[in-house]
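Step 1: inspect the first sequence and its tokens.
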Amino acid sequence: MSNPTSTNLSRWLSFVASPCLRVALLVGCGLFPSVAGATSTDSECKQLYRQKKIWEAAQCFEDYLRQFLSKSKLSAEDRYQVGLALRNTNLMYRKAAKREPKVFKASFLREKALRYIKLYISGKYYATPSQRRYAVVIRDRIEQAIGYAQVTVLTGHPRATARILGYQYKGTGQGTFTLQLRPGTYTVVASYPNATTLARSISVKPNAPQLLTFQPSRRVATIPPKLRQRKVPPRKVVQRRSPPPRRTDVAKKEANKLVQATRPPPSRSRTIATWTLVGTGGALVVVGSVLVGLAVNVNNNANNSENGLRQKIQTGGGSVEDTRALLQEQAQANGLLQGGVVAGSVGLAAVLSGVVLWSTWPQPKASSSLGQASTLRKDNVRPPVHPSQPGADSSEASVVPVVSYGGR
């Protein structure tokens, strides 16, 4: 690599205690030629940097770094070489980001530089505490230069899955979640349990929080193609038998009078059971209506909270607690609505059951007069004689027999 400025040189030299470490650091930074022990790959990377091939040098240092990271155990010399390679890779990507005119590509290069400096700090590849402090300063500067933005995604369903696709970026989330994204253009694809998919495109600017809200439509029930093609067999027409001969009008009237005179009052059990079902069903319908009204009220409050949260996020505010409170209000509204629908449905079914029970309750058998009529002797019942029959007179033709309808 080329010689850094005198300020950076003095800063790095102040981190090293012994002269031997100073010489090794200068060799690793490219101030002096490589000595024995340095691989040819390291020399090629430094040569690419001297030729102003920043991107090729960064990739070369990455390949050189993989040779050490693939080992299961590193010696002290290997750890020292890894630390030098991490700093060099970080420096190459920062310089490549400065030369990149496009913002989203420059942010991606800075993110790669940030990844290597974080690995340098977490792996403790530094030799002195001063080197660690300087690495932390570089990390903070890179994060500030990237300008991560907070993006909150509201899918509208707790089991919906969202995928975020961007330049060299892939992320996933479920329900309502928050991500830190670098500047650029992203496509968010939300998948719902009923196989519905929605997609939206957003443009993320540096240090500008955003709120992305999806509004899924209700599922529309469709008839499967197999059921549409199914043929319905023709209905079978059953021919009715000829009805039995009707009784005479006088016999019908007499029978109706006898039945009405001996009809018992309605059963007490029938009245109690019917009104119990009707009353319980009516109460459940009222409770269901109250629950639905509460659900509408809570839903309106949740919509107002969502609008307030959106304004907070646009002004730089908002937090995860506000989002959780919004989700709780939405869940409460859904629970009240479902409870109201269930209570109303059960109440309506109870009312209908009471009506059906009242109409289908079995009538008790008649007593008294019907029983007496059934004990008449058979010789008192004579069939009617038609006037056209031989030997019939007018008095016999006008006689109507008394028929007992108590038993069949």
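Step 2: inspect the second sequence and its tokens, then contrast the two.
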Amino acid sequence: MNGPFLWQEMRQQRPQLLWPAPALPPMLPSLPVRAYSGSNTPKAVILPQHIGVIGFPLRHTLSPIFQQAALDFYGLDIRYEAWETPPDRLPQVVASLRRPDRLGMNVTIPHKQAVAALLDRIDPVAAAIGAVNTVAKADGVLVGYNTDCTGFIDALRADGGFEPAGRSALVLGAGGSARAVVYGLLTAGALRVGIAARRPEAAVELQRAFAAGVGRDRTVVEPWGAAIEARLPAYDLVVNTTSMGMLHGAAAAESPLGGVRIPSGVLVYDLVYNPSETPLMRQARAAGARAAGGLSMLVYQGAVGFELWTGRKPPLELMMQAARRALYGTDPAQQ
């Protein structure tokens, strides 16, 4: 895969920082040490460092697999782990990042908005989106970033062959991932972005968040449920940002467009990546529409975080292969 080097693009395109810009991590982070005494001369032991992903539930995550493959590629003594975090434990987990053996973390459902208030600084892209999915330390300061927006657009172009400029898109959901997707589509030149959510007030709130700025005259609120069927022909792209269809989730067997006829000419992109074919993707393909899952977006956004934590260029193809093998049992791209 010849994917773009995402963090370089993000740095070039982002606006001026609202806060003092954090320095990028050095090529190798400072390693915590612990002195011990034995029968010989006291030595300093270099302790392994840790990066994690937080969310709830977290049984579905592939991030530790492909991120650890990248860390091992460079021979770094860093462990990437899954830290399942119920909402009531979020403050404690964020506070633990201040330990010298912690480099940062990824953030997934349901913490992408709540975590921002617990950090020291927010990158302006994350501030504009209103959600954080990556936390890195710069000189002990916890900085929140959003890499979902560029990860989504890059995956949409690479996997879906879809260029958003001048096209229309319907976004299902109004949480942190939806904010990143809407922002990404608008900044990529989408002509119109519709927002539909199970809670209509959440869709209205998200539409208003962008209506006065980047989404001026280009965002609309659409109905949820059966009423959306009449509106679907007006869209070229449908993006599911909800957790419906996620393996082990509360709605694992459900599609956000259940009972709705999907036009054959639309591209359906499901951010859910596990299982490899979600109920929504099966529904779309049965209707003759194209469908793609969120695995490549997961890897693209994760590659940006990898550079933030380590200062190293992410081995993108190796990360993608590791994720595919974990999800499919093999790498379909090699078949």
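Step 3: confirm your contrast with the notes below.
DSSP finds ten helices and 14 strands in the chain. The longest strand covers residues 49-55.
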